[in-house]
Design brief:
Blueprint lengths: L13 E5 L4 H12 L3 E6 L15 E5 L13 E6 L11 H20 L5 E7 L7 H18 L5 E7 L1 E3 L8 H9 L6 E3 L5 E2 L1 E3 H14 L4 E7 L5 E2 H11 L6 E3 L17 H5 L8 H9 L9
Parallel strand pairs: 1-2, 1-4, 2-3, 4-5, 5-6, 6-11, 7-10, 8-13
Antiparallel strand pairs: 9-12
Helix pairs in contact: 2-3, 4-6, 6-8
Amino acid sequence: MPLSNSITPAARGRIVVAGASGYLGSRLVKRFSANGYEVVALVRSRNSLGHLKGMTGDFLVEEIRSEMSDNFSSQNCEAAFNCVASYGRRSESIGEIISANTIFAANFFRAAAGSTARRIYQIGSALPPEINAYSLTKSHAFDWLRLTATSAPEKQFIHLKVQQFYGPGEEEDKLITYLLNQLGTGGPPLKLTDGTQRRDVIYIEDLLSAIETIFEKYGKFGLTEFELGSGQSIAVRDIVLEVAKAIQSNRKLDFGSITRRAGEPENLCANITALRDLGWAPKWSLTEALVEMTASLSPEKPA
């Protein structure tokens, strides 16, 4: 079913997803819609649907109102997800990053807490706050979530500290897709850092199933934080080599030719004990995920 201005009544409650035009937000919309929820996909403009464009499903696309509480007018609202994120990779000003990641989040939490929604989720970052404007403003959003939770103890507030995720159709500046594109073409040696820093990367299908597990199985009210990732860190160098192997790339790799950014952590890895306690475990290895991502690539061997 194409995008619509109305949705078919469902037996399950309504879920409001902000940042629905983004990569993760759009997939949450599709996932919850397929599971029988009434989903409202919040976007800044219906003329800019991003990843929602061409997506099928029984969900409502709604523009963000100047008074955000109007987006929560339904008495059947079950949950709210804030997936809005400005990474600062597209020349956004500091003010624009603060507005998207912190100010919008604070207003969203306030509107959701004042509605019938019993569960309010924030998609956060696993990066330390001091890394960049994105991670700092995301940490401030968590502060606002914590503050909002104190005023509504009868509701559930979930902060998801998400490690780096990847999947087909993601933005081209994301690590795995960037490497697939760069290593899939000829050219001079690809300049890279030394690659000794270790990162926890999680495939989009595993990330969605982890969020779904928390949503369906975790019932405690108040504020809770979950770390979302594969639970294993991999050296960036090994990630690069795994991508090169997956597409049989012959492009030379110039490790160490780029200096790492100041303060970059040596190791980032999610503690997924709480998720495992809920019965969740990752199913996709990097190797398996790369097979899935490259399935639609040209069969010709890259130069």
